[in-house]
Design goal:
With 352 residues, this protein is α/β, with parallel strands linked by helices. It contains twelve helices and ten strands.
């Protein structure tokens, strides 16, 4: 009896799935190549954004740089709606460069005027792009918000200190004692999102919004605290999705945490999903959010991008010249088939 039980269990194991799998529901309205996409949020936003950019979608990502918490995301989106103009008083000097509390350090500059010019130029581009965008993809990373309590100079007015502007999007390696760390409640997140979404829909009535929660673990907050943080984001986002018609949720967090439950899908820091994981998420995103034509174009462009990354050991050989000529012809055929694609860069590369 024991041997029969063991044998039966073994047979059952050989026929069962060893991976919990689920498919994200297809959107009722799907993304196509004629749409404009604005992507805002955490570093995981840029993984998806870079992949969509390589696939030649018309997009703009993170006009303020990477943003992590809902208050920072919402306040920056509303600043695009309002086309907020920054002034010199919004910048502060630290570590030999001029910084903005509302921008990533890639906007920091050694010259104050030039840094301000770059910030306002990005702000203007975001304002115009958001007005015409068909889709906004928001990736939230954490419920923890940092509030400025000390500053090296009066870069925030007293009014701003008492409002949501006291929440900073980036700490710029400033001393920890300059900030207080606050775990946003579900209600605080909902209130920030609600106000923001109403303004967005008034500004751009055709806008559709896809929310995702970043699967990147914020281990510096602590394992337990990270899980509390993610849970609040998920609960608040689902509340908003159930409230508004043109809001959607893509389960990037669940795909990585519940399907790819193995550290081989993480980078060396054991926190960030690696290329294999992000590519898997992108495939799931395409299946759920892109229309049939868009998925077909992505597949064809992927082949061209692989060809472009090919490194020839002997670039002067006839074989390599033939490879370039064949690749250029494939680009021309794709351009002819889909005239809305801009493949000038690829064509120039293969022709050179």
């Amino acid at each position: 009896q024991d041997s029969r039980t063991t044998s039966s269990s073994t047979n059952q194991l050989t026929t069962m799935d060893f991976m919990l799998n689920f498919e994200a529901p297809k959107l009722s309205k799907q993304i196509n190549y004629r749409d404009k996409l604005l992507l805002v949020g955490s570093c995981f936003t840029e993984h998806i954004g870079n992949a969509l950019g390589d696939a030649k979608f018309s997009l703009l990502q993170n006009p303020n740089g990477i943003l992590f918490d809902p208050v920072s995301v919402c306040s920056r989106l509303m600043s695009y709606v309002q086309n907020k103009r920054y002034t010199e008083s919004d910048l502060f000097h630290l570590n030999e460069v001029w910084n903005s509390w509302q921008h990533h350090s890639r906007f920091s500059h050694i010259d104050r005027s030039e840094g301000l010019r770059i910030i306002n130029e990005s702000q203007e581009i975001a304002h115009r792009f958001l007005k015409e965008a068909d889709w906004l993809i928001i990736t939230l990373g954490t419920s923890f918000s940092y509030r400025l309590i000390l500053t090296p100079q009066p870069s925030l007015t007293e009014v701003e200190r008492g409002s949501s502007f006291a929440a900073v999007a980036n700490c710029h390696r400033a001393p920890a004692q300059w900030f207080s760390k606050h775990l946003l409640s579900i209600q605080e997140i909902i209130e920030a999102l609600d106000l923001c979404i109403h303004q967005l829909f008034q500004f751009n009535p055709k806008l559709n919004i896809i929310f995702t929660v970043s699967p990147v673990r914020h281990i510096r907050d602590g394992v337990v605290e990270n899980n509390r943080s993610k849970a609040r984001l998920i609960e608040a986002v689902h509340h908003m999705v159930n409230k508004f018609v043109r809001l959607h949720y893509f389960p990037a967090y669940e795909i990585v945490i519940d399907i790819l439950r193995d550290y081989r899908f993480y980078d060396i820091d054991l926190v960030h999903p690696n290329y294999m994981a992000t590519d898997f998420v992108l495939q799931k995103f395409a299946a759920s959010s892109l229309d049939d034509e868009a998925r077909q174009i992505m597949d064809e462009l992927k082949k061209i991008n692989i060809a472009r990354r090919h490194k020839a050991f002997q670039p002067t050989t006839e074989a390599h010249k033939k490879f370039l000529k064949t690749s250029a012809e494939k680009v021309r055929e794709l351009q002819k088939k889909y005239p809305f694609l801009n493949l000038d860069e690829e064509l120039t590369y293969f022709n050179s």
